[in-house]
Amino acid sequence: MEEMISKMKKIAYEDLSTKKVDRVIGFGKGDFIYEANPIFISNLEEVDLLVWDLFCVNNLSKYLINELKNYQKIGIFLKGCDSLGFNQLVKDNKVDPDNVIVYGVPCEGMIDPNKLSKKNLLKDLRYLRRVDEKLIIVTKQGEKELIAKDYEYDKCLKCKHPNPVVYSELLESNTLRNSILTDDFEEVDRIEDMNSEERYEYWSEQFSKCIRCYACRNICPVCSCDKCIFDNLDIGVSGKAKVDSEDQFFHIVRAYHVAGRCVDCGECSRVCPESIAIDKLNRKIIKDITEIYGEYDAGLNPSKSSVLVNYKLEDFDPFETSKGGK
Amino acid sequence: MKKITEEKLPELYSHISQNHDLFVPIDQDDSVNFSLWKDGANVNFDVLKTNTSPKKYIFPQCETFFNFKSEGKKLTIERIKSEEKPYVVFGVRPCDAKSFRLLDNVFLSEPMDRLYEEKRNRGIIVSMGCNEPEDTCFCNSFSILPNSIQEGVDVFTLKLGNKIFWEAISENGVELTNKLSDLLDDVTEGDLKEIEIAKSQVNEKVKELPFSNIDPNEINRDLNELFQSKIWDEISKSCIGCGSCTFVCPTCHCYDIQDYDGNKSGERYRCWDSCMYSEFTLMAHGNPRTTQKERFRQRFMHKLVYYPNNFDEYACVGCGRCVGKCPVNMNITKVIRKLGGENQ
Amino acid sequence: MLLESKENLTIDKEEFKPLIVAFCCNWCSYAGADLAGTSRLNYPANIRIIKVPCSCRVNPNFVLRAFQNGADGVVIAGCHPGDCHYSTGNYFARRRLTLFTSLLNYIGIESERLKVDWISAAEANKFATVMNDVLEKVHKLGPNRKLRDVRWKR
Prior knowledge:
heterotrimer; B: alpha+beta; eight-stranded mixed β-sheet; four-stranded antiparallel β-sheet; globular; C: alpha/beta; Rossmann fold; four-stranded parallel β-sheet; 4 helices; 4 strands; 36% helix; 15% strand
């Protein structure tokens, strides 16, 4: 960790002082040991605020859209999942990659403070460190060794790209972890196995928890429309009423609008204040695409077009019925 | 003062729910929220902060003013009549109880809000003190003690071990207590001593919390200077413009009024709105706050300057929900500190 | 909170007249409907046809709003793949609707309620069969309560 932080500071300091970049987006320490937040640096004195620890979970790539309006050249620290979001922003023509220098940071998986809190480990937490698959924490009561997997964010447990897929410079570390998972869509299967009444009940219950804060939309690196239809009163789509049908409408449209572009970074589920299983919608679409149109690769290759803006003559056709009538 | 043991609580719940809708913190799918009590519900008083605040019972996220219907050339308007049962909210923490009072300032001053008033009068607030404040609590900064009995509370309770102490405060509270008298026992001398000790202990704990040095009174409330301050540019940078903070906040009370057009009939309703949204206070000429910085500033100026200028109290109770829920960890404590509201 | 309950909708099956919304592409399916009419083929009267320039014009919002505002079934009909007036529109629509129908099914909407088919301008017979078929299936399922906006009065 400390090694990584000094590398980060060094590269940010160098590039800012040589005017290679005029803005750096990275992580800073929050009020608690289990909190890190996005910081924006233009002055050399502020470089010292940069940190890297087990709580740098935010996907910073979306900030580029706004920051590039005011700055010419931006340096940004991106993890594996963030780099997928970055590629997608480039593909959607939201960000010009020539104006960005990506410092790739390999990620070991981030720790979810809520999971620590459920085991009563958050209070009086003084220090924590990860050694491979172990998590060492020091509290008032002393030192404890835990299994890191039990405390990682759900989205990190499913991570397929811990290392950045695109970067100008890779900040290497000895903790490089390789993708270990094969995606089995187990949680999607579980819902598919229900009958339609059960599925509807399940989703109605999930959606009715929604408080319409739009955190899932705003954190999403591919939800990048200048004006979202849910903010546009003129077109009669934005129903603000808290009724089930409007909640369902929002969630279905949101999920479908990112179909084929969702990079499965899991930020939407992480930020949901009511813990709605938003990613299970996205992952259903990903599963379908994988099964019907071949391997899902959103965010991997910025020059290849998305599934839904493409077609093949011989595509699978589920709608074809026998021709003619009686 | 009375008391009841934890084992007998379900009996108390079913007794209350005979004549009232009873709302308690219920643990469902790993998240605790105030919901309607039903037999077998998993009531959880150990989690200090429910996901969203209980303000939804006095100021629901969405409520209808009236229905309208058109038949030929005739337009009829129909008022919504409330036929709902009286309700009891059990387990309202002192910070949330205080927030009800802050909302009263807005909705119950002239012109009176009819819908709010009706809901407010229909409810009985059973408050519950806190023993273990969390790291994110900063109620003390707004002079709310975790065991204080807030104005407007009908019954005050305190849970110590498996005992729940029950103290009727208002007339409504006394009435409810009388109805429950079969279930409640009298307290002993020892119990009273126990309560005293617990109260002083928690008051000590509060002083050691990470946010204990936050003091909004230290902020120089010069409106012009604060409004023009450069600080807003810097701290609003990371805000993504979602409404989680406003919608989990117990004191946020801005709303929007919209019409639902449903073929031949429709309704006019109001629903929560958030100053973080781009269409907040949208007018014919456009939006008065065009950037996220201005929207962000609006929220905190409202809580720390505009509201206090009107009512002499801050529109924040330090519950810390926004601290836990913000996707990018930007919250009111950071803003207060940046504005100079910190004790050394 | 405002979920329309099953109990409210125990309408007698005999009385139940399903409302079907059909999005028809201007160049093929709408002309097919026209031909069905002029050929005096029988197809049910409770089908409301909405003309769209191309099947790929059908935004998922349209389908959801139809269900919200009283439709018991939705049909989307376009030219046969390869016959699109705009050359490629229905190829895109095919991909989009494949995913969308699957997503709605995942949410719990019975797949019989959302029907996609390719009907050319000459296939008046097919148009009538498809509509009769959808109507029959929806009738069997009964009134739709899923996705319905409770505030909407028919």
